[in-house]
Specification:
Elements (H helix, E strand, L loop, with lengths): L2 E8 L2 E7 L8 E11 L1 H9 L1 E2 L2 E2 L4 E2 L3 E9 L11 E4 L2 E2 L5 H4 L10 E2 L12 E5 L3 E3 L6 H5 L1 H13 L7 E5 L3 H13 L3 E6 L2 H9 L4 E4 L5 H8 L4 E6 L4 H10 E9 L12 H7 L2 E4 L7 H9 L11 E4 L3 H10 L7 E4 L2
Parallel strand pairs: 13-14, 13-16, 14-15, 16-17, 17-18, 19-20
Antiparallel strand pairs: 1-2, 1-6, 3-7, 3-11, 3-20, 4-5, 7-8, 8-12, 9-10
Length: 345
């Protein structure tokens, strides 16, 4: 078996190299990766070399949304066998801190998260991974769908943080990949009136195909004014996924009295002016999202049972050998790409 990986060698530069085959520990499995999604964070690292305090130093492997097939198991592995298809949850946590012990392991300060410096990602043929973070996929779920469990988990966590329930009205700001999986999650949780807002019509068209009640194109409509005509009381839940200063500020005006705002997208600005008087007068809650926790099994079952169809969000697929071209395509065609995946093998 030969193991190759794509390394980011500089800003907007990538090259393929042959690397050693991983050696598995007793509680690990060796996985032949088959699909890796291109996430916005991967693109950001390639373009800028850092995200906040996380700085790429030296050659670096990107990619954290992945799935594949088990080809070898450690001697103490009990739940997986050779031939099993698995989706990998990309964060390995300490298991000992207060956050891990209280179930909020996504907040573990010592998490080793794929493609978050200094930890390499998964744009490679083979990876060794802990059994307890490799989740078995049912036979009828493809590994392409398996690679999409990671972004879906973000959307499901956002819906859970907003306590979206049967009959709720929801506004989702941003119709990129995370906005669209949040739409799918909110529908699965029972929301019956979902408005999706974006400035790109192609993304809004995708939102309608995936089940949005309606869309608002913010490039030619005032979002607050348009939604107030649709729902004068405001939305039960407003979920911000665009990571834009403007859309974050709009959440205070769109949420109903007693409703909930969920902040998912990370804006370029650290400090943003915000109308807290509106929030206080409405006694609205503000929740935030950092990755996800305890979601993968539920997300896999939701896809397996047909409650959520993630396959519709993939707009572009590239072969492994064309990884640099795939990234450049995503960078240069942001208006056309909703979700791109790389087929490893």
């Amino acid at each position: 078996m030969q193991n190759k990986a794509f390394f980011m060698t500089d800003l907007n530069k990538m090259e393929m190299r042959e690397i050693e085959m991983p050696k598995i520990k007793d509680t690990e499995v060796l996985i032949k990766l088959e699909y890796v999604g291109i996430c916005g964070s991967d693109v950001h690292y390639l373009e800028h070399g850092k995200i906040g305090d996380f700085v790429v130093e030296g050659d670096f492997i990107l990619g954290h949304e992945c799935a594949g097939t088990v080809v070898e198991v450690g001697k103490n592995v009990k739940t997986l066998k050779v031939g099993d298809k698995v989706a990998l949850e990309p964060g390995q946590t300490c298991g000992q801190c207060e956050f891990c012990k209280t179930g909020k392991y996504n907040l573990c300060p010592d998490v080793e998260f794929l493609a978050t410096p200094p930890y390499h990602g998964c744009l490679e043929n083979y990876i060794a991974y802990p059994e307890n973070m490799a989740f078995k996929l049912p036979d009828h779920i493809t590994t392409k769908e398996g690679a999409l469990i990671e972004p879906l988990a973000v959307g499901m966590h956002a819906a859970a943080q907003g306590n979206v329930k049967l009959g709720d009205s929801v506004v989702i700001l941003g119709a990129g990949c995370i906005g669209l999986v949040t739409l799918l999650a909110c529908k699965a949780y029972g929301a019956t009136d979902i408005t999706v807002v974006d400035v790109l019509q192609k993304r809004l068209d995708y939102a309608m195909r995936l089940g949005a009640t309606r869309v608002i194109n913010a490039s030619n409509e005032d979002t607050i004014e348009a939604y107030s005509k649709i729902n004068p009381k405001g939305a039960d839940v407003v979920i911000e996924t665009a990571g834009s200063k403007v859309t974050i500020q709009q959440t205070a005006y769109l949420v109903k009295t007693g409703g909930t705002v969920v902040l998912v997208g990370m804006a370029p600005e650290d400090i943003i002016e915000y109308n807290f008087a509106k929030i206080l007068a409405k006694e609205a809650e503000i929740k935030s999202v950092f990755r996800y926790r305890n979601i993968y099994p539920t997300a896999i079952q939701a896809v397996a049972q047909g409650l959520i169809d993630v396959s519709g969000i993939v707009t572009h697929e590239f072969d492994f050998e064309l990884t640099p071209e795939a990234f450049q395509y995503v960078i240069n065609n942001k208006q056309d790409v909703v979700k791109a995946v790389i087929k490893i093998g």
